What does this fold into?
Amino acid sequence: MDKWLSNIESDTRDEPLARKVIDDKPTGATDECFIGAALTETTDAATCASTFPHYGDARLAAGEPLVDNAMQCRLEKLKPEDYAVTFTADQWARLQQAFPDGVCDWSKPPVGFRHSKPWLTFAGGPGGRPLGHVPESHPGSPKH
It folds into this structure.
C-alpha cells in the first residue's frame, strides 16, 4: 500500500486522481478475499467474485455515483442525444410517458445536498459546534 500511495504522490502527470490510482498500482499488488470458517485467503479474482457476488441496482445502472448519497436526484428532461441507441417514435413516446418529469441528472448534487461539517462536537447538544482546526500529525516528534 505504501508503494502504491508513493507512486501516486510522485506522479506529476496532468491526469485525474482516479486515473493515477489505476495506473500507479504496483505490479505485485492484488485483491484478496477470505473464504469459509477457516478464512482461507485467495487472490483469485474469479473465486472472490463468485463467493461474494456484487449486485447493483437500478440507480447505479442509471449512472448514480457509488457514494449513494441521494435521497432525491435532480431531474433533467429526456433528450434523445443522451442515449447511445436510436429510438423509434413509439419507443420515445413510451419513454416520455414512463418519465414525464425527466430522469436523474447524476452530474448534479442531489436535492437538499449539504457537505458534511467535519470536526464537530455534539457534547453541548444537537447542531454541534466546531472543534477548531483539523489536527496535524507529526511523526517522530517528541511526546508532550
Remarks:
- Residues 89-98 form the longest helix (10 residues).
- The radius of gyration is 23 Å.
